[in-house]
Each structure stands twice: as structure tokens, then as C-alpha cells.
Design a protein that fits this description.
seven-stranded mixed beta sheet, Metallo-beta-lactamase, Chain A, single chain, alpha/beta, four-stranded mixed beta sheet
Length: 236
């Protein structure tokens, strides 16, 4: 079975929060990718960092409610957004800063950033742009009701469930089975350390209990404390 055809199943994370994971290669390395689905108070579905859509995944999502919002939260998490808005023409697409220029073919209804106030999901989420990392321009979300931080590239957590080659590469980077970014990644990504520190401090003030990552294992408890330890190089 090819990687593209590996079935994606919805896994519960917290009440009204599910994830689905699919294979995804970056520069030949299998990192995998994960989307998050949140059911809002009115039954509408919020789809964050959508993965490849197929009939079984669509049926599983449709069983939860009606997709109303599709979010491409980073300049690198947009590959399948077009398939989702085509499949759900009643849904609106929202993207990270810079994405409308990168993907002019997509029908963005709005650009994320700033305060969550005024957005149709404002009652359910906090959100914040991670400044100082323009390569990603990632916008992270906190689902208030479940205290779940929903991210895409803010951190990796590559562990024993990853393929052998991926584990070997991350061991060589001294970053296997560790939350965060390796030293080479910090050097490549961060362009304004003070701005990133301000963003990160605000995110930690949300005190998330759990954290969903696109690449690697989620954090199911004490997420704020684990993030603080993983990013001590930035905060101290």
C-alpha cells in the first residue's frame, strides 16, 4: 500500500477534539503529518492543518458534524486545503500570513493573526501568530474548553513510532524523543529572537494542558511545563 493510501482514522484527544494522521515526506524524510478537527458549540467543525482527503476520512468527519472552517495555519501546511474547500463549498478557508500570496489559487476568506475577536470561532479559541519565525508564520490555537494547544510547526516530537530512517536522522541531530527544535532548526528558523520570545511567553500564559503536533507524538499532559523546558534556550 502506498503512503498516500494509508488509511487515516479519527482519534479522540479530548471532548469534541479529534486528530487524524497520514504519512508525509519532507526532503525524503518521513515526518508524518496530523490534522485536528474540533466540534464547536453549534455543531460546526473546525479543521486545522487538513491532511489528504479520501472517502473513508470524509465519512468519518461527516459523522461528527458539518465542516464550516478550514485553517491552513502555517506557510507549510496548505497542501490539501484546496481539496477540503472543494469538498465542502459551505466552508470558509483561513490562512497564515503570507499564504494568500504563496497560494493565490486558494479562496482565502481571511488571514489569521492578531486577536481572535471578531472571528466566527472566537468563543471557542484563543489564537496567536508566532512572530520572529517568518519561514512558517505559524498561527497556533488554544481550544479553551479542553485546554488543548493546536500547533503545526511550533515543535517536533519524533519518537519510537517513527520509521527507522527518521529516528536515525533525529538521533544524529541529538533531538530524538525530545520536544521542540534541534539546534540546526533554531538557527535556520528564528530571525527575531525577542519577537518569538514575546509570542511564546503569551502562549505559555494560556497554560495548555495538552498539545497536538503535526509532526511527532502529541503531549497528553503538562504541556505548558514541557514547552517551557523545551524552549528554555529561548525564554531564559
Amino acid at each position: 500500500m502506498s503512503e498516500a493510501l494509508v488509511p487515516a482514522t479519527l482519534e479522540p484527544v479530548a471532548p469534541d477534539v479529534w486528530t487524524a494522521r497520514r504519512p508525509l515526506r519532507m526532503l525524503g524524510v518521513q515526518l508524518g503529518t496530523r490534522m485536528t478537527v474540533v466540534r464547536l458549540g453549534d455543531g460546526a467543525l473546525f479543521v486545522h492543518s487538513p491532511v489528504r482527503l479520501d472517502a473513508p476520512l470524509r465519512a468519518a468527519v461527516d459523522a461528527l458534524g458539518t465542516v464550516r472552517f478550514v485553517v491552513a495555519p502555517s506557510r507549510y501546511h496548505h497542501m490539501f486545503a484546496g481539496d477540503w474547500v472543494a469538498a465542502y463549498p459551505g466552508a470558509t478557508l483561513h490562512g497564515a500570513p503570507g499564504l494568500p500570496d504563496k497560494r493565490p489559487d486558494l479562496p482565502f476568506a481571511g488571514v489569521l493573526g492578531g486577536d481572535a475577536g471578531g472571528l466566527p470561532w472566537a468563543d471557542a479559541f484563543e489564537h496567536r501568530l508566532v512572530e520572529g519565525v517568518p519561514l512558517f508564520n505559524e498561527v497556533v490555537f488554544l481550544h479553551r474548553a479542553s485546554s488543548t494547544l493546536i500547533t503545526s510547526d511550533l515543535a517536533l516530537n519524533i519518537g519510537p513510532d517513527s520509521p527507522w530512517l527518521t529516528r536515525t536522522i533525529f538521533r544524529a541531530m541529538w533531538h530524538y524523543d525530545r520536544l521542540g527544535w534541534s539546534r540546526p532548526e533554531r538557527w535556520l528558523y528564528v530571525r527575531d529572537r525577542a519577537a518569538m520570545r514575546r509570542s511564546f511567553t503569551a502562549i505559555l500564559d494560556w497554560a495548555p494542558e495538552r498539545m497536538v503536533l503535526a509532526h511527532g507524538r502529541p503531549v497528553d499532559h503538562s504541556a505548558a511545563a514541557r514547552l517551557r523546558a523545551a524552549y528554555a534556550w529561548l525564554l531564559d
